[in-house]
Every structure is written in structure tokens, then in C-alpha cells.
Amino acid sequence: MRFATRLIHAAYDPDQHQRAVMPPIYQNSMFAMREIGENIPYKYSRLSNPTRQILENTVAELEHGTHGFAFASGIAGIDCIFRTVLRPGDTVVAVRDIYGGSYDLLNNVYAAWGVDVVFADLDDAAALDNILAEKRVKLLWLESPSNPLLRLNDIALLAQKAKAAGAWVGIDNTFATPYLQNPLDLGCDIVFHSATKYLCGHSDVLMGVAAVKDDALARDLGKMLIETGAVAGPMDCWLVLRGIKTLSVRMKQHCANALELAQRLQNHAAVAQVYYPGLPCHEHHELAKRQMRGFGGVVTIVLKNNTVQAANRVIQNLQLVQMASSLGGVESLVNHCYSQSHSGMSPALKRELGIGEGLLRFSVGIEDIEDIWADIDGALRA
């Protein structure tokens, strides 16, 4: 089956669930046993739940993995992954321009736990070679495209180098989704998504999901998920299953709208810089064409007046586009990354990375592009 068909039919057999067309919501915490020691597939929903299992199997299939996992939130999922593979004294290498929540987790929690955390610019693969030669790297953590500057990693090249040195390779694939790229096919061991974003697509769930191929890694990650209790609830799993069915049609529109918006913003008098991998001027445009099947639904801009006052004026004049702390829903959103998603970073680090006070990240929705453009253009001119 092709991808759009698998989104609707993957990993679900109606014959196993009273011929229900949609997977049922097993909204219960426990399952009855007839006698002591009875071996039943489901006992307690922290251990396993039929709705969660359908979602986990679906995610694994869509990402070309063999094992899937659903977590109570995106950060809960990243934490479970890190807890599974890292120990005090290990080194984790993460891309520098990383999601603020992941940065905070590594910088504030894992560094304090005794993990050596290295944030690196991996544009030049030689930088990774140097780190691998000097340190005992246990995990390479990628994010491609990155949040919010939409920079790409050469996934296959970096994964090959890290795995040759004995490291696990994980990637946050939230911005791309399985619609645009499948990192397990490029050499990664772990692919992660904040399902809160595009997989759900309707801004009504908190969840993280992951897929792996390695059986031993899957066993350890599954054990960590159960023992930490960071499991996703059945209702949330059902909502994400529902959202996944329309991922293909939504992503087509997200990508088309984002490309059109980015092209128009390039020539706007109030805009100094546009970050979007689909633009030929983007530093990783050629890599994006080679590595992805499209360019995604996020567009980031820097205002010519690169100040918080100018950014706030734009936000206050938006009527259709709402300011919010997430992305990937059907509605268009704007995020002031300096004060929202990356607020945990120091001002000096944000400046160094290019996350200025006048940077705005647009999650481009699936509304009519002319309405999106009229709203953003009007706010920029106000």
C-alpha cells in the first residue's frame, strides 16, 4: 500500500475489534482476570492498552520500524529515550539549534545527572569526527529540520559516522513527519515525534511517539516507559490515530501554503530574513531536495526592526493567525521563540544561534493562502 493508504489502514484489523471501522477507545485502567496467574494480553493500562498498542504499531509501520511507543507528552518521550541510553559519564552530542524544551532537558537535568552534554554545529561533519575522537559518545541527537531556524542535518552521513563509533543515533522528526522523511531508512536508530504537532494535527493532544528497529533497544525503551509511567492515555491515542488518517492531505496543504508564504515574505519591506528549506537561498536547500519529499509547513522570519517591540506590534495586529506555544495544527500560528519556545536559553546563546527578539516562527495552517497572506502582510505593514 502507498503512504496515504497506509495512513488510514495501517496496523489495524477490524476483525480483532468487533468489526469497528475506527479503533475503539479502551478507556479503562484495568482488565479482568478469571483466575490467579491467568495470562491475558492486557492487565493494567500502564503496562499495555489496546488503543495505545494500535497507535504504537501504526507509528512503527509509518516510520519503517518494528516497535513503536506512545508517551504522555513530547518531553516525556525524549526523557524516556535519554534515560534508556544514557548514564552518568556518557556523552550526548546534540545539534546546537535545537528545540528549547530539549535544550532545557539536556542542559538542566542530564548535565546535572553527570551526563556530558555537547551542543555542536554539525554542518561540517568533521566537527562530529573530532568529538567522536575525543569523547565516549553514547548518543547523537539530531533535529532536522530544526526548531526554529529550519536547518537540516545530513542524516545519513552523520548517522554513519556516529554508529561507526558505537553511538546510538536518535532524531526529532517532528517538523518533517513520516510524510516527508523516514530517518530509520537513513541510518538512525530512534525516530521521535511530538505527536502534539502534525501527527495529531488538531491542537487537542499532548503526546510523544517513537519508533525503533533494534529489538534490544525496544525492550529497554519499553521497560523504561512502563517503569516511569510516562504512558499516553487511550483517549489521546485515539485522537492521534484519527489525526494520522488525514496527515497526507494536511501536509500537502501545509507545505504548499508555507512555500507560497515564504516566497512572498522574501520581498516584504518589513522582513530582513526568511528561513524556509524550500527557498533556493536557504543554506540547506539542496540537502532538503535530496533528503526530504517536501519542505514542511513552518516558515521563520526575522524582522528588519529586530526588536521585541516590533515583534509584539506584528503579533498584536494579527487577526487570523494566533500566537501560541505549539505548531502543526490546521490553524496558522505564530510563536515568538525568544520569549516562548526558547526562553530557557541565555540571551547570549540565543543571539549566537540567531534567535533574536525580532524572530517570528509561523506554523502555516491549511486555511486559504490568500487569507493567511492578507493577515500577515497587514500585520507587517501596521
TrEMBL record:
Domain of life, source organism: Bacteria
Full protein name: Trans-sulfuration enzyme family protein
Cofactor(s) required, per the database record: pyridoxal 5'-phosphate
InterPro entries for this protein: Cys/Met-Metab_PyrdxlP-dep_enz, Cys_met_metab_PP, PyrdxlP-dep_Trfase, PyrdxlP-dep_Trfase_major, PyrdxlP-dep_Trfase_small
Family of the protein in this entry: Belongs to the trans-sulfuration enzymes family.
Keyword terms: Pyridoxal phosphate
Modified residues (N6-(pyridoxal phosphate)lysine): K197
One BP term from GO: methionine biosynthetic process
Pfam family, one: Cys_Met_Meta_PP
